[in-house]
Write a structure and sequence with these properties.
Layout: H1 2-11, E1 19-22, H2 29-37, E2 41-45, H3 59-63, E3 70-75, E4 80-86, E5 90-94, E6 109-110, E7 115-116
Parallel strand pairs: 1-2
Antiparallel strand pairs: 2-5, 3-4, 4-5, 6-7
Organism: Elysia marginata
Protein name: PiggyBac transposable element-derived protein 3
GO molecular function: sequence-specific DNA binding
């Protein structure tokens, strides 16, 4: 339902290239495919139950891994790269325009050590 409303809004935009960012309330792999057909890029967070049968590490198993652990797969029906990583919580994102490279380590603040890591 939310994806069709978003598509209806995007159709009204002028004919030029856009990059759309959506939250997990609206995003599905079908929406990602539709954006690509419209010639738009999207970066979207996804809920675990909207990944069809993409074989990523389950969120429960990912939570037990150290911060920064990552898994990625190419979801073949929509031709979308899906990335899941463990941060403060488990995050799943689909950045089809960019993929997963290059990887970089982010500086984080440690409350316990009172410095950046």
């Amino acid at each position: 339902m939310g994806g069709s409303v978003l598509i209806d809004l995007l159709i009204e935009l002028p004919a030029q290239e856009f990059h759309v960012f959506t939250g997990n309330l609206f995003t599905s792999l079908a929406l990602m495919s539709e954006l690509r057909v419209m010639g738009m890029h999207g970066t979207d967070t996804l809920r675990a139950n909207r990944l069809a049968k993409c074989p990523l590490t389950p969120p429960q198993a990912m939570k037990k891994q150290p911060r920064g652990t990552m898994d990625h797969q190419l979801e073949t029906t929509s031709n979308t790269v899906i990335v899941r990583w463990n941060d403060n919580s488990v995050v799943t994102v689909a950045p089809p325009a960019y993929g997963v490279q290059p990887l970089q380590k982010a500086k984080r603040w440690s409350r316990e050590k009172k410095n950046s890591l």
